[in-house]
Amino acid sequence: MSLETAHHRSYSTFLGPAASSSGGSGANGIASDADGNAYVTGNAGPDFPTVNPFQPSAGGLGDAFVAKLAPDGSRLVYSTYLGGSSSDIGTGIDVDAEGSAYVVGHTSSTDFPTRYAVQPVSGGGFDLFVAKLSPSGDALVWSTYLGGSNAEFVFRKGIAVPVRGVVYIAGQTASSNFPTANAQQPAFGGSSDAFVAKIDETVTVAIDIRPGESPNSINPNSQGKISVAVLSSASFAAPDAVDRASVTFGRTGDERSLESCDAGVVDVDGDGLPDLVCRFSTPVTAFRPGDTEGILKGRTLDGLPIVGRDSVTVVPAQGSVATSGGSSSTR
């Protein structure tokens, strides 16, 4: 009896610039989705082929790239550069059930494209970048630096996306000031340490309950409204980013208490940036005596969850008076 095992090569293809180009490219990470599309990341020089790109041209001498190939390998669904003016290399990639690609790599660019960033600026040397692209590849959903003052690296399959919007990353750092949170080991141990990080794509926003008032007193028996400002920052323009219809506010943040949001521009905190002010029905917010925090939830216009918190003081129901903004509080 003889046994034979036959292997069938479904496809095999080059991926890079035209043969006449002097630019080189290399692939470092690959993932696939349930439909058989392949997602690839690596490094690319000039003339790398782009299709429906977020970034159509290289920002520096060498950029990361992200590409999606059709199940039969015959065409690029999308292909894009991803990088700044210095060196950027994609090293790992994963994809969620909706077809969004999550990419990790390292960069020495101080102008690497960031959006809704956990760490908006480079820590120094080679930092990691972590980025999410839209399913069509033509939009950067979010992107952030991650690193300290020395070098960080992630190798090959150093990224995992078990569910939409939750990213695990593992790699190596030489930075004693690598950013830590809820750390199993908070202190740097040697010349280089391993690291493990989890990123949740929820955007934390600053809010101001009852702008201009202190304390933020709330009478739960009032029939009035509570004003809440979603504050802008250099990387988050609240009036342009927040899906107003999605906003909820109250003791848990899930209360559907929205009455209205201002259409005009209001600078609540005097920082020169326009803020978004919304008003919520006091009875629906469900505050109770003893509550010390109000929570606002919602989504950005491109679907990212947002959450903000501010302190409150729930006061005894001894009567209420209306304020000029339509809100009410016990005095």
Give the second-level CATH assignment, the architecture of the largest domain: Beta Barrel
Helix content: under 10%
Shape: elongated
Task: Quote the average pLDDT.
Answer: 90
Give the N-to-C terminal Cα separation. Answer: 94 Å
Q: Figure out the total of helices.
A: 2
- Supply the CATH class of the largest domain: Mainly Beta
**Integer-rounded radius of gyration:** 24 Å
- According to CATH, the fold-level topology of the largest domain is Thrombin, subunit H
Number of domains: 2
Low-confidence stretches: 319-331
Strand content: 35-45%
Q: What's the total count of β strands? A: 24
The largest β sheet comes out as: 4 strands, antiparallel
Kindly name the structural category.
mainly beta
Instruction: Give helix and strand order, one letter per element, not per position.
Output: EEEEEEEEEEEEEEEEHEEEHEEEEE
